[in-house]
Amino acid sequence: MMSATSTLALTHFVTLADSFDKDKVTPGVLGFIVFAVIGGAVWLLMKSMNKQMKKVDFEEQPEDGDAGTTASAAPTQAPKPKTS
What we know:
It is a single chain. This protein is mainly α and about 80 residues long. It contains three helices and no strands. The chain is rod-shaped and about 95 Å long. The termini are far apart.
């Protein structure tokens, strides 16, 4: 059973909820700042990723199935150092 004080407290909260206009709720300045910081962080991460990807030196191996077996069967020789 509810006491008189809890009933009074609930009726007080109900009146506050009635005066709350759901159409006027906006994220405000704090929401904009958080969104801008997240956007800036994504931009910086993409810029860093592009910089790192440009450093990658990747050469594809031939798609022929025979080329892979002949390359592994042939003895590998170490490249000779340049003397200049």
